[in-house]
Amino acid sequence: MARLSDNSQLLDASGRPLRSILAINRLPEAEKERIYAVLLPQRLRRLLGLADTGSCNSAGERLVNYIAPQGLSLLRIEARQHPGDPDTVFFLELADTPFHQLELCFCIICDPTAPRFDVDIDEQGKINWFASHGRNIPEELRAMRAGLFPNQTRRGLQLFADFFPLLERFTDALGIEMIVAETLSYDNAIRYEKYGFDYLRGKRLMGEIDREFQPGGRYFARLDGSTPFRMPGMERTVRGRSWAIHDGILDEPWDDVQIYKMVGVNAAIDMFPQREQEQR
User: Fold this and answer.
1) Among residues 248, 267, 146, which one has the least CA distance to residue 197?
2) Are 63 and 80 in contact (CB under 8 A)?
3) Residue range 163-187, pLDDT digits in tens
4) What phi and psi values does residue 272 have, to the nearest 5 degrees?
5) Helix (H), strand (E), coil (C) string for the chain
6) Under a CB-based contact definition with an 8 Å cutoff, are residues 114 and 123 in contact?
7) Are residues 219 and 212 in contact, defined by beta-carbon separation less than 8 angstroms?
8) How do residues 90-130 score in pLDDT, each as one tens digit?
9) Could you tell me the maximum CA-CA distance found in the chain, to the nearest angstrom?
C-alpha cells in the first residue's frame, strides 16, 4: 500500500500489484521500460532531447538503456548524450533486498560538457573500482583543484534533488517502506543526510570523524601538509574532509557505512553541523 499522498500501488497492465524489481523484470520489455521511465528526471530528458516517456531523441537515436533481466532483482539505467559515448550522463542501479527494501546501489549524474578527470583508472590505464585497486594521483589532484569530490570524473548536473523524489515515489508505489544504500564516501554520507537518511551502520564512525577533525583532534593534527590532500583548513568543508579521508587519514578504512531512508520520513540527521559551504 502506498504511503505518500497522491501516490498509488504500482500495477502491471492486467491490474496485478507489483511489489519488487524482480516482479517488474518479469514483464514484457515495453511495459518494463514504461514503468522504469518514471525514474528519469524531466530536466535530464530536456538535456538529452528525449520525449516525455521515450528512450530516443528526435533523430531516433536510442540514448537510454534499461538493463532489467528477467529472473534477476536488479535494474540498471544508462543514459548517454550520444549512443556511442563511453561515459553515461545518468547511471542508476537499484536492487531488491531480502527484507523487502529497495537498495540504491549507485546513482551517478555527470555533466557531459564538463572536463573529464581520469580518477577512475590507475596510472596504467586500468579501471581502479573507486580507487580500491590503485589511485591516479595526478588526475586526483587535477580533480580536487577543479572543485570535484573523490571519485568524480566530471562535475555533476545538480540533478539528484530532481531524481530522489521520483525514487521515493517509485519505492512507495511498490509498497516498500525503506530505501537502503552504501555511502562509498564521506561526502556521499553527508549528502544523503540532506535527503532524510539515517545510519544503519557507521554512525559511531561519523561522530568520531566530526570530533577528531575539531582543533585538538588527531585527524586535525594530521592535516599537516604532508600530501596535497592533507592541507590545513580542509577540516572545515565536506570536500576537504572527504579528500583527506580518501587519502587514508583515518585510523580505520572507510567501509561498512550503510544508511536508510523511511519513505515519507526525514530523519533530520546532521553529522557535520559546523561545516562551511563549498565554493563552486
Assistant:
1) 267
2) yes
3) 999 999 999 999 999 999 999 899 9
4) -145, 70
5) CCCCCCCCCCECCCCCECCCHHHHHCCCHHHHHHHHHHHCCHHHHHHHCCCCCCCECCCCCECEEEECCCCCCEEEEEECCCCCCCCCCEEEEEEECCCCCEEEEEEEECCCCCCCCCCCECCCCCECCCCCCCCCHHHHHHHHHCCCCCCCCCCCCCCHHHHHHHHHHHHHHCCCCEEEEECCCHHHHHHHHCCCCEEEECHHHHHHHHHHCCCCCHHHHHCCCCCCCCCCCHHHCHHHHHHHHHCCCCCCCCCCCEEEEECCCCCCCCCCCCCCCCCC
6) no
7) yes
8) 999 999 999 999 999 999 999 999 999 999 987 777 777 66
9) 64
C-alpha to C-alpha distance for 42 and 6, rounded to whole angstroms: 19
User: And the C-alpha cell for 103?
Assistant: 537498495
Q: Which residues contact 119 (CB under 8 A, 6 or more apart)?
A: 131, 135, 136, 139, 140, 143, 150, 151, 152, 153
**CA 26 to chain CA mean position, Å:** 26
> Hey, what amino acid is at 126?
K
Please give the angle made by the CA atoms of 261, 16 and 10, to the nearest 5 degrees: 30
Of 221, 230, 219, which is closest to residue 141 (Cα–Cα)? 230
Identity of the residue numbered 11:
L
Q: Which sequence spans correspond to the domains of the chain?
A: 1-110+157-182, 115-153
